[in-house]
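Researcher: Good morning. I'm working through a list of sequences from a screen, and I'd like to move beyond sequence-only analysis. For each chain I'm collecting a predicted structure so we can compare shapes side by side. This is the next one on the list. No need for commentary yet; just the structure.
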Amino acid sequence: MSHVFHPTSLREYDIRGLVGDTLTAADALAIGRSFGTIVRRGGGKRVAVGYDGRTSSPGFEAALVEGLNAAGIEAVRIGVGPTPMLYYAVYELGCDGGVMITGSHNPPAYNGFKMMLAGRPFFGSDIRALGDMSAAGDWESGSAGSTQVELMDRYVDRLVQDFDGQAFTIAWDCGNGVAGPVVEKLVKKLPGTHHVLFPEVDGNFPNHHPDPTDEKNLVDLKRVVLEKGCDFGLAFDGDADRLGAVDGQGRVIWGDQLLGILAEPVLKAVPGGTIIADVKASQALFDRVAALGGTPLMWKTGHSLIKAKMKDVDSPLAGEMSGHIFFKHQWYGFDDGIYAGVRLIRAVSELGGSLTALKDAMPVMVNTPEMRFQSSEERKFVVVEEVLARLKAAGATVDETDGARVNTPDGWWLLRASNTQDVLVARVEARDQAALERLQGDLNAALAASGVAPTIVGH
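Model: Good morning. Structure tokens for this chain:
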């Protein structure tokens, strides 16, 4: 017995593919068998399993559990819910690992598997080793059962455990993802007036795509905030591990701006704490953390990489431009969009009660959204190396944490290879439009010198 996965499905942070094509029930069974073997050989016995609202998720869950059981691992089934609720289950129920079946913010025809071990994220070489183990049929055998655990009420109670915020009028856009049932329970425990949009879990996403980093998906949220006179609005991605937000005027508060607000109360509680953000974050954020007496740390993009780095440097809070926010302060160190939303309510309460005023006070920066340029899997890392070599030869100020981030007195540009797609990712930020155009010209020239066309490809 052995099983070979489709080569495109084994990603850096998860296993993901097109349902029935590059990801099948046989894959789910093999993932259970292989991950179960890894946990068992590490001395573990129990793995928590959760799944999102996609139509293919229940079938994958059943096959995964069968695979875990065949490796002698008991499955603790928490049912439908957010990815962070699965992470919470591993801590709360003392499991040895966890598997979440989710396609996150991918289109409905996709699904995937996110894994974690009790003490650390499971990614990169772990996923490659799992693939090799499956191809070799190197599996433990055994028999074990499964238990169903109703965890959602406990999770909601934990979300509000330290709540000290004031009453606001808030719109919550669940986007027909798995945030819905949790948010409906949560708002009953919070003060204020709450307008919950699209809480029905529907894997076809009939209202809009659940990805709050793309502004076109925030149209409904902005409308409700303005119509109902809300103080602000919150939005989640499909599996609720990422947060999006708009202020009372419907202006987007981007991931790095959220982190700048959330960091202030945390740094009062943890003076000098290290706050981590990814290489796509604004210079304004790193400056803000330093001004608050914290230690800013720029790190590589990728939720698994950020979680691992937080452990290394004992960071109380970290975040990514994509809306992954990780609290170790009063929480567990994993990314949770709903918990980040609760912390935002608390932070805004502490910082004067107006998210709109906090947005007004932010330094005005001109920046591009994330840009993606087509490049092959083989070529994308080489292009970054070539660009770095030329920049160094020219004496530029470059940060090499993750690709090339070129700093100038009036702004910066970033070029990095995507870990999950055959694209180069770029971003430019400057103090004014003229500087932005000059820096964008520098980026385009750097790409052209390596033969990359300056045409931006879609998400």
